[in-house]
Amino acid sequence: MNMKNKLELQWINKNKALYYDIFSGKYEWVDKKDPRVSEPRILIEKKLYGDKNTENILIKGDNLLALKTLLQDYQRKIKLIFIDPPYNTGNAFPQYDDGLEHSLWLGLMRTRIELLYKLLTPLGSLWITIDDDEGHYLKVMCDEIFGRHNFVANVIWQKKYTRANDARWFSDNHDHILVYAKDKANWRPNPLTRSAIMDARYKNPDNDPRGPWMTQPLHAKSGSDTGYSYTFANGIKWSPPTGTFPRYSKDSLKKADTEKKVWFGANGTAVPRMKKYLADMVNGVVPMTIWMHDEVGNNDEAKREVKAFNPEDVFATPKPERLLNRIIDLGSQKNDWVLDSFAGSGTAGAVAQKKGRKWIMVEIGDHAETHIIPRMKQVSSGKDQGGISKMVGWKGGGGFKYFELGDSLFVRDEDLRLTVINPKMYNGVLIRAVLKIEGFRLKNPDNGLHGISGTTAAHVTEQYLTQEYVDTLLNEIGYQAKFLVIYAKTISSKLKVPNNVEIRRIPDVLLKKFNV
């Protein structure tokens, strides 16, 4: 298939979703309303690690289904989303396959990024690591989802610091980090903390009592004042170079000259420049778009970090903690939610926890258990002293809950050629699945009031719904809500209910939602 046809297929598939069938191990295009991808699944808690009050969660399962499930509780609540998806390089790594057909990869990313967009707060941001194989196509697609006006930057990260002399064309030493804001007009990155290297640039050769300083030119690239000149107290006359404009007014220059904040060089005859004092640099610095490996880490550093948690099966493509430290610093504050739906080795969650953020990670592979859980257990206990631990003084704390996605409420009966209720769904599982799909918040399943949505309550039952059942239910919970919806598999044809009660049959009402 040539590139033109590939791109055409991608645009055709805007109304399709790429679904991963765990039984066949293959991806397939399905309608976006297919229950297998549009049905929000319940989360089944498997284990709690550390603090019982933790809000951090790790989910094992397909991230498309997980994001759909998270949408009900976390829509517009996530401050920062970082994803490190497979780069689609055509390689096969031990933990995942990285060689999908181009349009399939774009389709996989589209459906997921559309959901990520909905999860972001109005002042949230999305950060995606990618390389040149798909990066430019991904940007075009993200422009369409977020709007080109919400594209913030393409950061270049130096992932390798040595030259690959065996490279056939160029030595590939960088990745891209695409940065999008939900609302760029109102979003700003947090300033970066000044480093010792930055501070070392400030000197004090004239023993200025205001402390170390550096200089900046008196001219700027833009402005409106022409024919400008100024004569300083020492007789030096200054005008902005051709094609530039004065950065300061004459009154400002006079004040600076009087306060001896203008530097004329060691001999007092150089082109004048304005002093900028280290003591005034209290708000941090604006981030640049090129991040060198000595500032934020590299691939070798990342592999050394994850080797501590699983030395026999080192994750193939981890990201260094210092890189995530930079991203989380720029895009979030303490107690904000950080989400990574391609969790990989768990770096995003590890750094988020060490920096006082709440996190959600999703990973479909077995390394959710073989790599991420061991890592996060050591983070919580404080045993993990690698990565940024010493930098931030990490001693341990917190914890996380481990979930797996529940089964679909629907299965296909090939004999009847019908979609039917999954026989695994019974009792509490059925209640939770129905409430999830219908948008109710789960209440105590044992007291009859199973779910609530605004002023409407819900009750789910597998029993035959008789008049006696309804009357008993109304006596017990009817007073607790303005409206009541009762879901049942089998229903008597002679029911009489008040105007504020509605009966819905399972599975009919649910199947209609998915056009099945």
Tell me what you see in this structure.
- The chain starts with a helix and ends with a helix.
- The strands form eight sheets. A ten-stranded mixed sheet has the order 3-21-4-20-19-5-8-10-9-18, sandwiched between helices. The protein has a five-stranded mixed sheet with strand order 24-25-26-27-28, sandwiched between helices.
- The longest helix is centred in the first third of the chain and has 18 residues.
- It is built from 16 helices and 28 strands.
- The N terminus is likely disordered.
- With 516 residues, it is of the alpha/beta class.
- Helix content is 29%, strand content 27%.
Please render the helix and strand layout as text.
Layout: H1 3-12, E1 16-21, E2 26-31, H2 35-38, E3 43-50, E4 57-60, H3 63-74, E5 78-83, E6 91-92, E7 97-98, H4 102-119, E8 120-130, H5 135-146, E9 151-158, E10 174-181, H6 196-200, E11 213-217, E12 219-220, E13 230-231, E14 237-238, E15 245-246, H7 250-258, E16 262-263, E17 273-277, E18 290-291, H8 293-296, H9 299-307, H10 321-331, E19 337-340, H11 347-354, E20 358-363, H12 367-381, H13 389-392, E21 399-405, E22 410-413, E23 418-421, H14 427-438, E24 441-442, E25 451-453, E26 456-465, H15 467-477, E27 483-491, E28 501-505, H16 508-513
Parallel strand pairs: 4-20, 4-21, 5-8, 5-19, 9-18, 19-20, 26-27, 27-28
Antiparallel strand pairs: 1-2, 3-21, 6-7, 8-10, 9-10, 11-17, 12-15, 13-14, 16-17, 22-23, 24-25, 25-26
Helix pairs in contact: 1-4, 3-4, 4-5, 10-11, 11-12
